[in-house]
Amino acid sequence: MVDYSHKIINCKEYRDIKEVGIAKYILENSLKLKLVIIQLGDDPASNTYINNKLKACERCKIESELIKLDVNTSQEDLLKIIDRLNDSENVTGILVQSPLPPHIDSKVVANAIVYTKDVDGFSIINKGKLYSNEDCLVPCTAQGVIEILKYNNIEIEGKNVVIINRSDLIGKPLTHLFLQNNATVTVCHSYTQNLSEISSQADILVVGVGKAKFITKDFVKKGAIILDVGINFLDDKLCGDVDFFDCIEKCSKITTVPGGVGLLTVTNLLTNVVKAFHLKNIHNNQ
Ligand SMILES: NC(=O)c1ccc[n+]([C@@H]2O[C@H](COP(=O)([O-])OP(=O)(O)OC[C@H]3O[C@@H](n4cnc5c(N)ncnc54)[C@H](OP(=O)(O)O)[C@@H]3O)[C@@H](O)[C@H]2O)c1
């Protein structure tokens, strides 16, 4: 059997190093930080993600609070809670867990959070700042993709990057982060024609389609670097959007699911809480 372990991009090692660094920074600077997560309803996947976030806060000595609301809570009531948290001196970061029920407008909610506490980076101010290359709170998963490439000394500058996703969470912020790093970026989505032709031009291929094993070797250039952002369940098992075993021989490097980019999403939330603390101080001194 061929050993392909040298091709696996190790996200766990980077996650562990980063988390220790955050914990040390908080301790050494005696920072008092608090993250508040608001959840509407009891979606099982959301429960798991929230649990991971709360545990990570505990490991890094960030105080956390989960406000769990009834799924039928009105948008007006939700906005009142956000207002109260915006005004609270003790709260560093606010996150409203998605998915939200259909009667809630996610854009209104994202923009209700004061941008200095918007640790998901979804508000229009943080988006605008990102697109203008200004210091801001960047969506956690997108930030994780860039960081893991850099940690593994994978050159970004001048590379052809194809991102299969155009969401506010992944594709849009990532496009700007890759552009900031001088890559040539193509963004694909469900209306893209000849997807495999485009994706097989990519030196770096980022996939966040949300369809298990969607990407096979026919979508991949020989020697490409593949970052699989997808999280799916197939036969009760967690898997990505990339058919790992089909692509492993053709690519030069690949992330796994589980154990891949997703690990960095939570760590970058902690990074954003620390950053939110500093942004608030800068904002208050202006
Ligand atoms: N690793 C992590 O930490 C993390 C964090 C967040 C999300 N995720 C996962 O990442 C995936 C995407 O999340 P999301 O929130 O961005 O989902 P989303 O908003 O549904 O985005 C999916 C994207 O894939 C595109 N797409 C769907 N089918 C396609 C097809 N046949 N060909 C080409 N493009 C196609 C969609 O195109 P349109 O825009 O045209 O619809 C859209 O841009 C999900 O599996 C999610 O669970 C992982």
Protein topology:
Blueprint lengths: L10 H18 L5 E7 L3 H16 L3 E7 L5 H13 L5 E4 L9 H7 L11 H8 L8 H12 L8 E5 L6 H10 L3 E5 L6 H5 L4 E4 L17 E4 L3 E3 L2 E3 L4 H4 L5 E2 L7 H23 L2
Parallel strand pairs: 1-2, 1-3, 4-5, 4-6, 6-7, 7-10
Antiparallel strand pairs: 8-9
Helix pairs in contact: 1-10, 2-10, 6-7, 6-10
The site of NADP nicotinamide-adenine-dinucleotide phosphate has 24 residues, from helix 10.
Name the descriptors:
286 residues, alpha/beta, Rossmann fold, 2 domains, 5-stranded parallel beta sheet, 3-stranded parallel beta sheet, 10 helices, 10 strands, binds NADP nicotinamide-adenine-dinucleotide phosphate
Which CATH architecture of the largest domain would you pick? 3-Layer(aba) Sandwich
Please indicate the count of domains: 2
Number of strands: 10
Give the CA-based shape. globular
Q: How large is the radius of gyration?
A: 19 Å
| Terminal CA distance | 62 Å
String of helices and strands:
HEHEHEHHHEHEHEEEEHEH
* Weakly predicted, low-confidence segments: none
Query: Strand count, sense and closure of the main sheet?
Result: 5 strands, parallel
Strand content: 15-25%
Quaternary: single chain
User: Bound small molecules, which ones?
Assistant: NADP nicotinamide-adenine-dinucleotide phosphate
Number of helices: 10
Mean pLDDT over the full residue set: 96
CATH topology of the largest domain: Rossmann fold
Name the CATH superfamily assignment of the largest domain. Answer: NAD(P)-binding Rossmann-like Domain
| Assigned CATH class of the largest domain | Alpha Beta
Percentage of residues in helical conformation: 40-55%
**Which strands sit side by side, in order, in the main sheet?**
5-4-6-7-10
- What structural class results from the helix and strand content? alpha/beta
